[in-house]
Amino acid sequence: MTRVTPGIWTHPGQHSPIWPGRNHPLGATWSEEATNFAVYAPEATGMTVCLFDEHGGEKQHALTEQSLGIWHGAIPDVAVGTHYGYRADGPWLPADGLRFNPAKLLIDPNARAIAGEVTHDPAIYAHVLDAPDEINPTDSAPYVPRSVVVHDEFDWGDDAPMRRRWRDSVIYELHVKGMTALHDRVPAELRGTYAGLATPAVTDYLRDLGVTAVELLPVHQFVSEPRLMEKGRVNYWGYNSIGFFAPHNAYSSSGDSGEQVTEFKAMVKAFHDAGLEVILDVVYNHTAEGGAQGPSLSFRGLDDRGVYHRVRPEPHEDGTPAGFDDTYWDVTGCGNTVDASNPQVLRLILDSLRYWVTEMHVDGFRFDLASALTRVRHEVSMDCHLLTAIGQDPVLRHVKLIAEPWDASMDGYRVGEFPPPWVEWNDQYRDTIRDFWRGRSSGIRTVATRLAGSSDLYADDDRSPYSTVNFVTAHDGFTLRDVVSYDTKHNEGNGEHNRDGSDDNRSWNHGVEGETDDDDILALRRRQAANLMATLCLSNGVPMLTAGDERGRTQGGNNNAYSQDDETSWIDWRPDDAWLDVYEITKAALRLRREHPALRQRHWFEGRPAIQDGPKDLAWLHATGREMTADDWFDESLAVVGMFVSGAPLRSPGPRGEQQVDNSFMIWLNASAEPVRLTLPENAWVQSGEVVLSTDPEHGPGFPAKAGDTLELAARAVLVLRET
Q: Does the annotation count 368 as an active-site position?
């Protein structure tokens, strides 16, 4: 590439209409005097900033400065809210990973807001796919979202990070639109938006339920895949990002020319005012540009070779290295994999994360397909640049960091391997607990391990019980109600002939597939749902609930509703068919967890006394009242277990080193199809108690119990006793 210079002056006293500006920060930085534009495109031979007026008219400004691969310049008198984009010139050599095309308007990768959307008309959308000689330079402008010049002086007041400890956290995974789209107590004009989430109807509900943090499905600007748009569908979940700094504009009630930034901040502040943290589900592992035949929306038109992983080319027969192979290497299942080992891509991700923490005040992140981001020359490495940089960053190392510890490849499954301060989604918890309650467990050995914090996964490398984020459902898969109502998936509505979605659901319909009027089956399903929720909320680790599960939300057996932007996915807030008994059990279990540190301990249980001559901190009991034996642990027919947790005292000292004392608890789980006779063990420490949570209608809250008593626990039921 030839050296880039401003060119030659034509006469003395001449004034350049574009100032040199600076190569940092990347993106559009507004000031009253001029707006600085900076974009990374090291292989481009020319770069143009395109500014659009309110009528769509385009004015082009060629940048003449390039340093460190960054094109930059400052343009005077650019108003806040101005729409803009880039056109990058350079070679069109797809076989070499170079796809420069000045006919394509490109989104600024660092845009703080994005206006408009990719059209859903496939005939027009094709313009975004074509090669340079097939379209005119202005053809693509109306069909690509435009970046927005943003300057927002939001008044945060005294808002500050809560930094709630993991052991005190309860996560509620929700979709911005789906949470309020049908909510009758949210003003109609705010439903499905950031402002809708900020209403007391939502924040009061969540606080009353007992959650401490919301985890928002993707809110980075995203677009739908061409194959979905061709069918008139959309990517509802949003796992198809194109703007890592921009709040998704369709969730804004106030406009998309920067107003979405202010509305998002107001939502975060409202959550914080209600005592709720905000965690973002972020998708850095791939982008909406898909495979090599996908649209050039941003990254592909600026730095295709740098942003995306390619396959390893096979060496020549004589053993000499082969040249570049443009084939995209895909371990995300979405057409491309972002190369986080590339220094500039690493900078992009880190800048994005810091922006959301410092400017948008979010409290943490859940990283979609995190294993894909750890790839160094295709191999998973927990010593990769991204994890190392985050661990050393003075801002990021103190926020909540959650890994989805797998990707779409076999070697990407890395549950239990992410280093501190990361915690992980634990799908082994989900599978074990579902199997237990549907009667498919091979004994209770692994069940007990999951209840106590999954020490087999996390204790051996000095991680804590809160390293596991426990869940029984997530956005991806059956809802809780569908877990107990369907044996198989029913995804016909997705238009993929029921081939999509997992076949490994570990669900049970309890005798009838789908909805039924059979009162006995309905009662059993609701009890099983309550059992799953109670187990989740009282297990050691960090519980994560999926929005609507606590009130019986159903997707009609669809376990892959990613393209269902309708009542299939939205929460139905009407009381008519709500499973409010499940809600009450969930709320009661979370209250017990919140009020009793014995149920959310930060150290591993040791199975020995926490004080001399005291009770074991954790003991596992057989229904007969004795402690479990080695034979019991390997008895595959055993479906009943008692978990004794001592609170006198706790092993962990308080914040000033004081000894902490709490009530002791006995938790009984009976997953068998028959009632079981329980004997409450005779012991020297706990003599009496009462039921504080139960899914057995014969033993409700307040039911008294004494050491040595026997009682009958109903089939498929949970019973929690608290020392009095």
A: yes
